[in-house]
Each structure stands twice: as C-alpha cells, then as structure tokens.
Design goal:
The complex is a heterodimer of chains A (570) and B (98). The N and C termini of chain A lie far apart (138 Å). Chain A is elongated, with a radius of gyration of 35 Å. The mean pLDDT of chain A is 90. Chain A is built from 17 helices and 23 strands. The longest helix of chain A has 40 residues. Chain A is of the alpha+beta class and 570 residues long. In chain A, the strands form seven sheets. In chain A, strands 2, 3, 4, 5, 10, 18 and 19 form a seven-stranded mixed sheet that branches. Chain A has a five-stranded antiparallel sheet with strand order 12-11-23-22-21, with helices on both faces. Chain A has a three-stranded antiparallel sheet with strand order 1-8-9. In chain A, a hairpin with a 5-residue loop joins strand 2 and strand 3. The mean pLDDT of chain B is 81. Chain B is mainly alpha-helical. Chain B has one domain. Chain B starts with a helix and ends with a helix. Classes of the chains: A alpha+beta (570), B mainly alpha (98). At the A-B interface, strand 3 and helix 9 of A face helix 1 of B.
Chain lengths: 570, 98
C-alpha cells in the first residue's frame, strides 16, 4: 500500500517536472522563433527603417546627353529650368497668390487656388520646366510660400528642325523625363544616363552630422550622340520641301537624303510636322515619322529595282527589245502606259525612259514569281531596316502562295505593294553602292561624359546585285533623267541617275485616278554618288505627275547640295 | 613619492589645457574647411549653370534661323545664280600669258 502511494507521488512529481520542462521548452522555442523573425526574416526591413532614421538620402539627377549634327552643332541640348511649387501653409492671401503667379505662368488661377485649398497639403507643384526668364519674374514677386527647384529642360537651338527624326522628351507615369519617338525614344537609355545618390548621416533632431558618414554615388551623365545628319543639308531640305508643298499644292511631303556608301542619313524631313518644344499642342498622329512609320505605293520609282533584278538574273539586258504595241491583258485586267501611247519596238532602257508599265509586265513575265518575290526580300522589303529611330514599321509582303499573276504584273511598276520611304531610298542606294544593301543609321558616334567616342560603323547587309548590274542600271537611270519626262528641270552639266513615280492612292479598295503620290528617287553624281534622295508629295494639286512636281523639287535640292558639297558640273 | 605627486599636479593640468586648446583649434579648422568646401562646391555649381547658359547662348547665336535673321537685317539676300567653274576650265585671266 505504502509502496503504491510512494510510486504515485513520484509519478506526479515527474509529470510536474516534465510540464515545467515543456513549458520552458515552448518558451525557449518561442524566443528563438521571435529572434529568428527579427534577426533573419525582418532584418532587411529593420535595416531599412534604421537607415531611414539615421540618414538623409538625396537623388542626384544625371544630365541628359546632347545631340550634335555631323558638323558639330547641337540640335538638342539642356537648359536650366525650374519646378515652381507652393507651400500653402506659408501663404496668407491664397487667391491673390494664385492670380499673381498665374499671370506670369499663363495658367488658370482657379486650378492653382483649388490645389492650394486642398486640406493637409504642405507642398503643391504648380508648373514644371519653367524657363529661367519666367522664373526670374516669379522670384521678383517675392511671394511667401513660392519655391523653386532647378531641373533641366530640353533646348532646341534650331527650333523645330528635324522634329520627326529627333523626337521629344516628355514625362513617364512616375513623372520622370523620358524620350519619346525618333532618336530621343530610341536612345533614351544612352541619353538619360544613370541617377546618382548622396546619403548623409543625421542626428536625432534630423539635422545633418557634419563629421558623420557620407556615401556619395556620382550620377553618370547621359551620352552625347553625333549624327550623320548635316545641319546645313537638313536646313536646305526643309526649306525646299516647304516651298515645294506650297508650290505644288500637296497635302503632305517627305524627303530623305542618304549617303549610299555608308547608309548614313544626311537629312530627313516631313511636313506637316510639329514643334518638339510644344509637342503637347500637336495632334498625336504628327509624332510618327512618316519616312519610317508610314507606307505608300512607290509607283514607277520601283521599276528600277525590277529592271535591276531582270539584268542580275540575266533575263534581260539594257538592250533587250520588246514590242510595245498596246495595252497588255493580265487576268482580265488591262494594263496601259501612263499616257496610253505605245512606241512599238523598245529597249529596256526605253522602258525606263518612257516609264512603260507594259514594258515592265514583259520583265515581270520573264522573271517569274520566285525571282520577283526573292528580289523584293533581297532589296529589304517586308522587313524593318533596323534604322536607329523608335517609330519604324515594316509592311509585310504577301505570302508566297498569295501572289497572283496580276500582283506580279502590278508590283513590277510599283503598285499593289506598300513600302516605307526609308525602305525605298535604301533599296535604290543598292544601285548607287555597287550592289550592296546597307543598314541605315542616323547616329554616327556616341560620346560618353568622359569624352570617349564610340563609332557606329556602317553595316553591309548583303550584296543584292553585282557591281556590273549596278553600273548598267545606273546608266539606264541616267538616260531616264536625261531623256525622260523630267529632263526640263535637270541641272545642266551633272550626271544624275533617277526615276519619277506617280502612284495612284487606293481608296476603299479602288485606285483614285486623281489622288496620287508623286515621287522621284535618284542619286548623284551618278559616277561617284555623294547622296541618294527620295522626294514624295502626297496629292499635289498643280499636277498629279511626279515628273512635274517631285522631280523639279529633287533637282532644286540637288543643285543646292552640289553647291554645298562643292561638286562642279562637267 | 611626494615629488611624483607634485609633478603630476603641475603637468596634468597643462596637458589637459593643451589638449583642450588643440581640440578647439582642430574643431575650428574643421568647421572652416567645411565652410570653404561648401563655398567651393557652391561656386562649382554656379559655374556649371553659367557654362550651360553660355553654351545655350552660343548655340542660339549660331543657329541657322538666327544667322538668317541677322543676315537679312544686314541686307544680305539669297543668291539665285551661281557661276561654277568646271574642272579643266579656268578664267581667261588665269590662262593668259603675262
């Protein structure tokens, strides 16, 4: 009996010991878990909180890079501007404040008053990127509660020159500067640089500790861009294009000038355009550069490429003859010459001189579907050119099986195919460049903040035609200029290779005979080309023909360029 | 022992005073250096802003629209005709024997 009582007491004591042991074990585990939480799990957050309590952190903004023309003039640079803000708690007469400030900033005073009246607002931004002159006027008001913070703003010394090519700088969703369209968009990362930071230790009252630890990461300023574009050539092209659009009553117009040997873009202009300084005032459709982002049917300018393919594939020579006796029928459609006149026995050079659609159907038939489709992709159609501009698009070519006989016939004279002006001038540059297709480039070199220059080397894509073919087609194009419809406008003494084009515009699935895109593509001097150029005018009203509108405009610009480059006539 | 105590009573306050004075001098120098550094960096910032403004003025003055405006104001007109001397052809005066 006493033994069982004794053993019962022992077991109770043991269970109590175990309970205490378990209690301490649970307590110990809880402490370890809690310590693990603070020291491992939440350590990052705590470190951040401690850093925030101990340090001030300022961001040091980098300077956005400058864009220079090839002749060393800045096309876009930075200027000092200000963020104008208000501190409502320091302002006594809020309505008077809003009135005086809005008079200078040309904003609605009600919008400023409304922001100032919002409860619990200690800081109200009024306007960003205010220029120095206006900021000085505001400073002279000596308004209590009006503050200024410097911030850079883009400055355009040449005003709206090359707006489509350059693009503009706007704000992103976080209110940070960001480049949009053109070069500003494409090279945004290079131009904007890397933000730096400054971290200063502060005391318990929030004042900086002078001999406390300071961490500074210097900002890396954006890189500068040096373009292929020549400021003077750009100015010539823009001036002539404006005059041309007015003279020929066109709705729109574009000109691109390219160095055929390197692919460098010497000038690029389109009107109507916009002013990057006031980009918000322009319609959004204006932002897209039509030379790389819009398509058109090239019309007869395309004939030189099909003829080049015909010679390269040895299905024709410049002297090959054909009978041009009347319209030709393809799949029930009648294909005529542009003036419905037929010259009997003609050579392939005559086909280009007279811009004969019937002659081109002859070449197309000799080439056949496979060779034509290959020619198109070899010359770079159906794919982007990889130009260094943000807004490039590339119209797709038909699927191989979708090419009908009528499509092959019409494509031979540049109808039923959509191309961008850049694709077109690059393709014609192949003829000017001994048969090589180049990658077009706007930027020639990139210069970093330390002055280190990185050259962007010209890039050959492929050889499309042989040098011999290129020379033969060049001679045919020279003949087309010297004996063609536009010979009256050609500057005497110069050898210019070129071709006119007049493409009807498709409206709701049908071609409108009165609405045309007049164009001229060519290069000069033909023996050692300095430039290749494409001029397009949309719906010219003085004449629908390229020979009477785009061609004279091309020759006027060519005259200016000969003078500028010091190229003498023969 | 007494000698040691009397020496320490003389030298320790002197050392303390020297250290105290040098601390004041050092702190003062540090504050002055900080202030000079601040002035220099403020001047650098000001010069950078001034440089930027001057660059902008140069760019504006040498821009094509500005040059055009000044040329027109000074009475220049756009040339309509050019005389080009082609390769191999020289002015008569250059080809005549003297």
């Amino acid at each position: 009996m006493s033994l069982s009582l004794k053993s019962g007491k022992v077991s109770v004591r043991m269970s109590r010991i175990w309970m205490v042991f378990l209690f301490f074990l649970v307590l110990y585990t809880a402490i370890v878990a809690r310590l693990f939480y603070w020291q491992v799990w939440a350590s990052g957050k705590l470190k951040d909180q401690a850093t925030t309590q101990h340090f001030f952190r300022f961001s040091l903004p980098p300077k956005r890079g400058t864009i220079f023309s090839s002749d060393g003039y800045p096309l876009i640079m930075n200027q000092q501007a200000y963020l104008v803000y208000a501190e409502p708690k320091k302002i006594e007469d809020k309505d008077g404040f809003a009135k005086r400030v809005s008079d200078i900033l040309a904003v609605d005073p009600a919008s400023i008053s409304a922001q100032l009246d919002l409860p619990d607002r200690v800081w109200v931004p009024i306007q960003r990127k205010v220029d120095g002159e206006k900021a000085d006027q505001l400073k002279n008001l000596k308004e209590k509660g009006l503050g200024f913070e410097s911030e850079p703003k883009r400055y355009y010394p040449e005003a709206s020159m090359a707006a489509h090519m350059l693009g503009f700088v706007g704000l992103d969703q976080n209110g940070q500067d960001r480049g949009y369209f053109g070069l500003e968009g494409f090279y945004d990362r290079e131009l904007k640089g890397k933000e730096g930071s400054l971290q200063i230790e502060k005391d318990v009252q929030g004042n900086p500790i002078l001999i406390g630890s300071t961490f500074r990461i210097d900002p890396q300023d954006g890189r500068n861009l040096v373009l292929w574009t020549d400021r003077s050539v750009q100015a010539i092209v823009e001036k002539r294009l404006k005059e041309g659009i007015e003279k020929y009553g066109a709705k729109e117009g574009s000109i691109i000038v390219m160095d055929p040997k390197t692919g460098g873009i010497l000038a690029m202009a389109s009107f109507p355009s916009y002013d990057p300084r006031f980009y918000t005032d322009a319609e959004k459709e204006r932002y897209i550069n039509p030379i790389v982002g819009s398509t058109y049917e090239p019309g007869s300018t395309f004939k030189v490429l099909i003829v080049a393919s015909g010679i390269e594939n040895k299905v024709i020579t410049p002297a090959t003859t054909m009978e041009e006796n009347g319209p030709v029928e393809v799949m029930g459609y009648l294909i005529r010459t542009w003036n419905n006149k037929y010259n009997g026995l003609v050579t392939m050079t005559d086909v280009l001189i007279h811009s004969s659609n019937v002659g081109m159907v002859f070449v197309s038939n000799r080439l056949g579907k496979e060779k034509i489709v290959k020619t198109l992709s070899d010359f770079g159609f159906g794919a982007v050119t990889n130009v260094d501009l943000e807004d490039e698009s590339a119209p797709e070519l038909r699927e191989d099986k979708e090419w009908r006989e009528i499509d092959l016939a019409t494509v031979s004279f540049g109808q039923g195919i959509a191309v961008t002006p850049l694709q077109m001038v690059r393709a014609v540059s192949v003829i000017a460049n001994g048969g090589y297709l180049m990658e077009p480039k706007v930027v020639k070199a990139i210069k970093d903040a330390n002055g280190k220059m990185t050259e962007v080397k010209p890039k050959k894509i492929r050889q499309v035609i042989s040098k011999k073919t290129a020379e033969e087609v060049t001679e045919m194009m020279v003949a087309a200029v010297d004996q063609g419809e536009a010979k009256f406008a050609k500057p005497p003494g110069y050898r210019i290779a070129g071709k006119t084009g007049t493409a009807q515009i498709a409206v709701e699935g049908y071609y409108d005979e009165k609405k045309t895109i007049a164009s001229f593509v060519g290069f000069a001097p033909s023996d050692n080309p300095k430039f290749a150029m494409l001029v397009t005018l949309r719906e010219p009203s003085s004449s629908q023909w390229g020979s009477e509108t785009a061609a004279p405009l091309f020759f006027n610009i060519a005259k200016d360029l000969f003078l500028y480059y010091g190229i003498a006539p023969r | 022992m007494k000698k040691i105590i009397s020496l320490s009573t003389i030298f320790l306050p002197i050392i303390a005073i020297i250290l105290f004075v040098s601390q004041i001098v050092f702190t003062n120098n540090l504050a002055q250096d900080g202030s000079t550094l601040k002035e220099i960096s403020a001047k650098i910032d000001m010069l950078a802003v001034e440089n930027e403004r001057l660059n902008q003025e140069i760019a504006f003055a040498s821009s094509i629209p500005e040059i055009q405006k000044k040329a027109l104001a000074d009475g220049f007109i756009e040339a309509k005709h050019f005389l080009t001397i082609a390769q191999g052809k020289y002015l008569v005066s250059l080809t005549q024997k003297r």
